[in-house]
Design brief:
This protein is mostly beta strands. Helix content is 6%, strand content 30%. It folds into 2 domains: 71 residues, no CATH class; 32 residues, no CATH class.
Length: 117
């Protein structure tokens, strides 16, 4: 059988070199997703997953999945798998049918995963 990935909206940010080598007063805390650990000595990031600790390097993408989980994706895979969406994206809940224009990944009505239309 063949399968196609559901069109869901994810949050993602690319790991930058400046995360590892800038002065404390200029540290880009707002850019770094929660629960992503920075190792300035080895110049990589770490996240804890159900499978164990995952390592991300400069230029990898930190993805926040539909259930809030974090994982890394290599740039070439990210480029072939994802595309940017506008701020005003139309999403639909497969369970209750509610359609909404927002940036949330979860239905406000029934808390199900929203799908991109």
């Amino acid at each position: 059988m063949k399968f196609r990935k559901k069109p869901v909206v994810i949050e993602a940010v690319q790991i930058k070199e400046k995360w590892f080598n800038c002065p404390d007063e200029e540290y880009p805390l707002a850019e770094i997703p929660l629960n992503v650990l920075i190792d300035p000595i080895q110049k990589h990031c770490e996240v804890k997953t159900l499978e164990g600790v995952m390592i991300g390097n400069i230029d990898d993408w930190v993805i926040t999945g539909i259930k809030g989980e974090k994982y890394f994706c290599k740039p070439d895979i990210f480029q072939s798998t994802y595309e940017p969406v506008s701020k005003d994206v139309l999403l639909e809940c497969p369970d209750c049918g509610k359609r909404e224009v927002n940036n949330s990944l979860i239905c406000d009505n029934c808390k199900s995963e929203l799908l991109l239309l």
